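Page 37, top half.
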Amino acid sequence: FSPPTFGFLLDIDGVLVRGHRVIPAALEAFRRLVNSQGQLRVPVVFVTNAGNILQHSKAQELSALLGCKVDPDQVILSHSPMKLFSQYHDKRMLVSGQGPVMENAQALGFQNVVTVDELRMAFPVLDMVDLERRPKTTPLLRNDFPAIEGVLLLGEPIRWETSLQLIMDVLLSNGNPGTGLATAPYPHLPVLASNVDLLWMAEAKMPRFGHGTFLLCLETIYQKVTGKELRYEGLMGKPSILTYQYAEDLIRQQAERRGWAAPIQKLYAVGDNPMSDVYGANLFHQYLQMEKRGRAEELVAGGLWKQRPSATQSCASILVCTGVYSPQKPGSMGPAHGGAEPPFHGHRDFNFSPGLMEASHVVNDVNEAVQLVFHQEGWTL
């Protein structure tokens, strides 16, 4: 075999699994992707917008489901590129999400984190929606609680009203929610967020709320209360270019470790969500074309990672029909809208460009996607 010159960026939910069930086509796809020694024949990185889990746990879960060894450094969670935002790593950050939020924040390099629950315990009078949780006596006011210097949104939390209220308190009080301020500061404290997916596909027949829905609530409340726009210092996860730059770097390292001498020139991104997977892959492809002409800076304002010039020439988007996207269902972001424009499910900060929602290829499932790519690359199935 000649060494591969292409690699796969595979989404997880709706492509390989639905909830905790593996999609049968994923098992067939991996039978094609591994050789007789059980090693991958081409570099593969799993790019998910999930964030409420540890990287090594996700790798173990995938290894078990796919029957193929997946290393932690093949998994990119929505917040993985936050490792690059080192200027915030020593700041005292309020972290929102669920699952192992402290461990995730620390693994990303943040040394000084406060969870929403810790903040709630420190200032019990802040959390007032749930009558059951209101303090029965008047607690003493704390003045020994160090100011919070930024907000880290890793994924959707459990009690939205508590998180929305306390994040707002921190932004409006410039990080001192015990004191309050007469006028809210603007610009506000730095906010880093990962995963802007409005919807995602689990076992249910209809899509579920994603972290993008939580962000939509926070942005709307901030706008309503202050009359100003909530701004992000960094937005990661798909469709952010930063996530694809990060994935490209991991693909390159994987090829080097395997001793594949030829540079990886083509990436194939397989996903089920036109708004994150297709849009992101196409945006990255556009970025690669502009980079060749030395004009990539025009495409993305701020937060762009200065990396070595990439050997990657192209990134093709492949849309599967096993998740959020379905060609028949109205409202599934499929073409069946009777010619009407489907609603824009993307995030406010990613300008809507309808052309970027058009996948390079639409196939039934991930197994068909792998067959299509092997065929295009002249590889034997």
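Page 37, bottom half:
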Amino acid sequence: MSGEEAPAQQQKSEEQKQETKANEEPKPETKQETAPAADASAAPAATEKAPEEEVFTYRSLVLSGYGGYDKVKLQVKKGMPTLKNGEVLVRVKACGLNFADLLGRQGLYDRLPSPPVTPGLECSGVIEALGEEVTDRKVGDKVLVLNRCGLWQEVVAVPASHTFAMPDGMSFEEAAAIPVNYITAYMMLFDFGNLRPNQSVLVHMAAGGVGIAATQLCKTVKDVTVFGTASASKHEAISQGGVTHTIDYRTQDYVSEIRKISPKGLDIILDPLGGSDTHKAFNLLKPMGKLITYGTANMLTGQKKNLLAVAKTWYNQFSTNAGSLIHANKSVCGFHIGYLDGEYELISQVVAKLLELYSQGKIKPRVDSTYHFEQVGDAMRRMQERNNIGKVILLTEPKKEEEKKEEKKEEEKKDEKKDEKKDEPKSEEGKKEEN
């Protein structure tokens, strides 16, 4: 091979390599050149990318672990809930917040499955689909729902027997406020308590959901005297709601206050507190009196589980025996709506009576406040710090941009005020204290 032929041969070899490489590499997508209209219309439709199928999503509140308010998080779930026989699909509009949900967040409510789990015992909404064998409901029905858990989300699949038709004129917020509070109050007062005219009842936490429900139900019976405990700022509200004698549990000894008015004691006491307060309640009963205990609110003292409060409540737990009850001529009952989840025939009878009372104007849920799912931490804080008068409701609809802007402005104002306080010149006394 001559010296002249070698460079030419190398050049030819390089060209062949480049061609081979170009053939091996994937060709990038190229824009089609402009073609006549006839040719464009004849272009094969197969070249167009088929649109992706939309996946159904819905918002849900999920308890990620036990602890503070931040443990309940807003998540987006994918896929439509599957309906089983006898179930209905409900588009949820409003959900109720209960003490059981606060206890569940701290790991103190044994009816709530372990995290991650969606809480929520009650809600209201509209039926969107029916499962097989559902005959007493139809699409479009407005219903209130009671379930063991899982209702804090935009859509839920529940047994049709767990739903109850809303009366005309009832709002979704009111409907979400009825199941837990009013069923609890009704069954304690009338099934256990056998409430009759001219009797006396003690309602603890009278400004809460169960407290207001119990007070309203007491007023459906002639000449019932209601003693209600609440902080002083709530006395006007509960008095207007039907409480006969208000007591500030923070500054007054409710036992001595009741004895002043009713020396013989009371006929019925509803105890949501537990611990030493249950002992006091039993001693406050008249002969033939009835104590109905339905909670352990004394264990709930902060965002996270307070082991000292839990231990103290259980250590002071009330106990008795058949002989003592016989000698005292008193009865003690325990109520827990969470353990009645297999008694929906009984529950349905109670709900029917409650909805009839609502239609008659004899009871009406008091909604304290509403919060969007994004604000669940604020909602729980309001209830746990005992700032509510009535029911705290969660709304499933996303928060509007206008509301977000207003909240942001309020936060900015608060921050400005804090900064102004920091910048204020300190007094001579303040300087001395620092030194």
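Margin note: The CA atoms of residues 2 and 320 lie 117 Å apart.
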